[in-house]
């Protein structure tokens, strides 16, 4: 069995693990860097980190067409049920872990904000640690640096997906500190180069990761994948 993560640009990911297809924060329709349209995406499960438009935009069309189960904080799954008729949900909150057919999903803290596009509260923003058969993946999602990343890294993280765009999340320098706290084997950058305010030089970032941390950086273009072995 293999688990393959494909970057869909911005904070969006398609994960194929065995026969399961999991999408994190689908944002393709209004993303300038999406490699294909949301109509071409298939999902059995959708993970949602927080309520901002660049993370929830394509949840309703994708969940409706694919009958996917949406996993997110209680306030967001309740909003999807009451406002959009999405009834297949797995509500969670920070610190909680649930067992799903593709592995265990733990919701962890993120230092950010979370209001849904119509002004409703999205509850607290979150990241995820997903335990795939080949190892744990930490999706930090939209967050600043926080010292408790040390605890998130404690069970051993195979791959960390960290934002490096700056302005709305941590930038490259803080991501280096995050890597030192989480201590993943490999690290992939996300949430950058979608728009000019979050442009970053990912190759310069990768050089800093190599010289300052023990992790191996992997820089992807939208549409490219990384495999867990
Ligand atoms: Ni956000
Ligand atoms: Mn965002």
Note down, in words, how this protein is organized:
This protein is of the alpha/beta class and 229 residues long. The chain is 22% helix and 29% strand. It is built from 6 helices and 14 strands. It has helices spanning 53-56, 59-66, 74-84, 149-153, 172-182, 202-212, and strands spanning 3-7, 13-17, 20-24, 45-47, 69-73, 89-92, 97-100, 103-109, 126-132, 135-139, 159-163, 186-190, 216-217, 225-228. A 7-stranded mixed β-sheet has the order 6-5-4-3-2-1-14, covered by helices on one side. It has a 7-stranded mixed β-sheet with strand order 7-8-9-10-11-12-13. Strand 10, helix 4 (149-153) and strand 11 (159-163) form a beta-alpha-beta unit. Helix 5 (172-182) packs parallel to helix 6 (202-212). The model has no long low-confidence stretch (mean pLDDT 98). Bound molecules: nickel (II) ion (NI) and manganese (II) ion (MN). Manganese (II) ion (MN) is lined by residues 11, 52, 54-55, 142, 168, 191.
Please name the defining characteristics of this protein.
single chain; 229 residues; alpha/beta; 7-stranded mixed β-sheet; 22% helix; globular; binds nickel (II) ion; binds manganese (II) ion
Structural class: alpha/beta
Major sheet summary line? 7 strands, mixed
**Proportion of strand residues:** 25-35%
From the N-terminal CA to the C-terminal CA, the straight-line distance is: 9 Å
Low-confidence stretches: none
Q: How would you sum up the global shape?
A: globular
Bound molecules: nickel (II) ion, manganese (II) ion
